[in-house]
Amino acid sequence: MNKKEIEELIKFVSKSGVSEVSLETDTVKITIKNAAPRVIEQVLTAAPMMQMPVQAAPALAPVAAAPAPAAAAPAASNDESKYITVKSPMIGTFYRASSPDKPNFVNVGDEIKAGQVVCIIEAMKLFNEIESEISGRIVKVLVDNSSPVEYDQPLFLVDPS
Predict the structure, then answer these.
(1) Positive or negative, the Cα torsion across 124, 99, 147, 108?
(2) pLDDT tens track for 104-116
């Protein structure tokens, strides 16, 4: 394997969205790891497709339950329209602290800054620190600790003022 082939393999790995590729021949052993956050998100967003068959069987119950929360949402959004929502960038399990014996990253009333870790989402045995993209004050925590979350699910309400 020559230098050009290795470079092409590296480019392929970075564009494909995989986090690691190992290649072994009689003369060469190569492992390429891509730790970019973008790649982790792409890998994790593919997971809902694997879960769809599991959720497809009880589809009648969520469909019947969906209209009630949808009707309640507009009334809540009128009061909360001045707040910004911090949403989950991936699916996984939501944790408010790094371990059970540690304090929560943020609590209601805490001032946060852009880039500050607000929670952890565990996905496929990887613990991903979720950082706030905005500064402000935490008004409400919308998810219970150790609960499963979906992609783009609201996690926190933040008052940006």
Answers:
(1) negative
(2) 999 999 999 999 9
